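Our collaborator T.R. sent over the components below with a one-line note: 'Predict the complex.' Nothing else. No constraints on interfaces, no templates requested, no preferences about which chain binds where. So this is a plain run: every listed entity goes in together, and whatever single assembly comes back becomes the starting point for the next discussion.
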Amino acid sequence: MTDPRRTSFLKRVRSALGNPLRDESAISAAFADPRPAATAALAKRMRERPPEERAALLVRLSEAAEPLNIQLVQVPDETAAVEAIARIVANSLPEWGGEKRAAAWDHPLISALNLQDALADLGVPVFVTRPAPDVDRGRVRRAVADAFVGVTSAEWCVAATATLAARNPPGAPRSVSLVPSIHVAVIRAEQVVADFQELYALLNAEMDEEGRGLTDAMTFITGPSKTADIEATLVHGAHGPRELHLIVIHG
Amino acid sequence: MAEIACERYKDMAATGIADPVLQRALINLQHRFGRGTAEAYRNLPEGPELRFQAKAIRQHAIDHLDLLLERLADKIEARGGHVFFAEDAEAAVTYCQKVADRRGVKRIVKGKSMVTEEIGLNPALMADGIEVTETDLGEYIVQLAGDHPSHIIAPAIHKTRKEIGRLFADKLGIPYTEDPPTLTRAARKALREKFMAADMGITGCNLACAQTGHITTLSNEGNIRMAATLPKTHIAVMGMERVAARLSDHAILFRLLAMGAAAQQMAGYVSYIGGPAGPDSLDGPEEFHLVILDNGRSRILADPEFREMLQCIRCAACLNVCPVYGEIGGHAYGYPYSGPVGAVVTPLLVGVNRAKDLCQGETLCGACRDACPVAIDIPRMLLALRAKLAVGDDRWNVAPAGPAERAVYRIWSRLIGNRRAYDLCLRAAGAGGRLLAGKDGMLGRLPGPLSGWTRSRNLPSPAAKSFMQRWKEMEGEGGSNHD
Ligand code: SF4
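Returned assembly:
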């Protein structure tokens, strides 16, 4: 399957570069880690991080979260996390009117919270996304669009910038963190990494060790949706969620 | 192709300077973002040298561009995505039209993308009877007003809240307000309906990753995520240089991009997209297309003098510090790329002679180079373009300056090489200047062919005595004690 357009396009690029040698070693050099030693040191540091350093990361996270208007809640356990979510649901109104509904990822950490029961007391139905090849995507879409709160987890959280990062796991649609007016993300304290260098080192390590590449989509989220397009005035809730609540479970 | 209005640079610049609303907006913009970016660099834990590391990463990518694009395309195709290599704007536009036609597309939502402005995609799709809605708030305002973006990141910077209030009252039928949160909410509501109804999303690509085979989109509003998630078909258009070799390269580049673009530590949303939704994904597009565009870029790549320009990640930091952009605004540049980046890229893309005023209008002060997250030496390239305009250049089909202008510069260069002749002329100019100068000692209007110099500025009259003369006299007085 050779696409003649692609061939002539790449030929033009190569000739613009002065037709450099393109043998195996040139190809692997193009993609090689420029600083393998630094990457290895980083991975070691992360794996051996002592508890006091972990605690310091949480302080750093809360310092980064504040100016971004992220509502950071630190809780001791799952029960407290559920209470925190129930409070958020009880205290806010659906932006576009109608009934209060929520949507949540099918994800080990979120399923353990049993939100369907917890929010039933408030009369708020929770749509839980389910992975299945035969799932009705139209239904998922409508349910997510009808929800005013979307509950997700993330794989990592970068302390330096308060960024949530997640490769899309199966059954966890990206729209749950995007379309509802309020996004609630629940993570465990161990998922917090120091900075972007660490995050990318982890991603790389997993790609190498597990032979697992990135999936079709990966998303980083730093704060609620915002814009400054009218006279450079900051406004939250341009298109995505107006509020972002980050719940960190210790222990 | 986008409309090219570079020939009107001088007129448009004069219009911009005379517009008090624009002037206030530009001061505000540069004050906030220009300074914020500089401070963000100063506070980098790795030190400001990180910019040079970023530059090396970009250069590495450019030097291996053929390999990177090949890997990127292979990976995306392996996930069921389509990759189209477009030699020029026309090929890219036609491809998008065909996909839209085959998919029976009626409504398109777009994420802000300068490259789609460059190829003139919107008018072509609209001519096919498709509704195309820009969804970045600034871009939406500009589209509703039938206007053009005037800044790469903040397209509606030239509009006041009052103008936007009137525009929304008129077009969206809401009661007049000039409250930014209320206006934003009105747009949020209107665009939410568009997102839900759209059958195609079109976005750009900030910086693809060849190693893993993903494009990335960055935004603060979330509109690009919507456009890439909700409609059944997603087309991403990228300039061929917008790719990094390795995933870890993004760690540095995205932070610097956010600092350059908006003095942020990180953009609100970063999305990696590597193809259509997988079999067990519950949302995302059924079809994914990536259009990789050359449109004159390989010519830039082939010239070692300008290759550095392909490192650009279109963050607009250079606009936010440029004293020329800060006076004339973005519309004067007559093409989607404005400011210092536009002053180099536009002549290279549309023709150096045609866009000559752009590179001659900049001041060479170097502020752009210091603000650039990848430390691109824009002043060097502005000078290189000017040299081509002076003596002509075959590779870029540049016609040299007219014989009269060249004669003037030849005489000038002889003159400044000859001390005695130069002194003589200075003295003559000093005498002539005193005759012509106004009360304030400034020359408001020079005669004849020199009048161009004074059309838009006053010139101080040459001093009666040259510096060298005064220096000699002071030495003669027996001391180097200056007063
Ligand atoms: S030249 Fe540098 S500062 Fe200007 S847009 Fe490009 S990357 Fe940003």
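Summary for T.R.: The longest strand of chain A covers residues 182-188.
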